[in-house]
Amino acid sequence: MLDYDLTRRLINSPDLSKDFKKCVVGASNDSSEASASDLHPVYQHLHTTDPPEHTSLRSLLATEFTRSRVLQMRPQIQEIADRLIADMTAMREANLLQVFAHLFHCMSSASSRGCRNAT
Fold first, then answer.
1. pLDDT in tens, 36-55
2. Which pLDDT does position 23 carry in this prediction?
3. Of all residues in the chain, what percent are helix, strand and coil, respectively (each to 5)?
4. Are 73 and 112 in contact (CB under 8 A)?
5. How far apart are CA 115 and CA 109, in angstroms?
6. Which pLDDT value is given to residue 77?
7. Which residues contact 78 (CB under 8 A, 6 or more apart)?
8. Is 76 helix (H, G, I), strand (E, B) or coil?
9. Helix 102-112 vs helix 67-89: angle between axes, to the nearest 10 degrees?
């Protein structure tokens, strides 16, 4: 567990990065290296970018995750979780990440974007 101040220092440290192109062991700091913005768009998301790209992406999503919007989505998200848990309990054994977490993320994301049959 990290305290808030240490966490903020680590997040803002130029020595740490979520951009995997910057994290290759032995890689040079040459500016010609590709950043997340140079990659295919599927690799450009909150989990793989650093500021300012991360900040820009986060601001695009901020309006979808207000308290009122999250409360509005709660019944759909609960339905997805209940169904995945029911499916999982029918299994003799299950990998929680594969059987629940990954599907939950995909299905709840699709549902929040209005995709039909996401649940």
1. 456 566 666 777 777 888 88
2. 55
3. 60, 0, 40
4. yes
5. 9
6. 92
7. none
8. helix
9. 140
CA dihedral 42, 47, 49, 51 (to 10 degrees): 140
Q: Chain-centre distance of CA 82, in angstroms? A: 21
Nearest to 39 by CA among 31, 29, 48, 47: 48
The CA-to-CA distance between both ends of the chain, in Å, stands at: 34
The span from the CA of 19 to the CA of 12, in Å, is: 13
81: confidence class by pLDDT, cuts 50, 70, 90: very high
CB 53 within 8 A of CB 60: no
Amino acid of residue 59: S
Q: What pLDDT, on a 0 to 100 scale, did the predictor assign at position 38? A: 60
The pTM of this model reads 0.54
Kindly state the tokens that stand for 109: 């994301």
CB 44 within 8 A of CB 57: yes
What is the rounded distance in angstroms from the CA atom of residue 107 to the CA atom of residue 76? Answer: 10
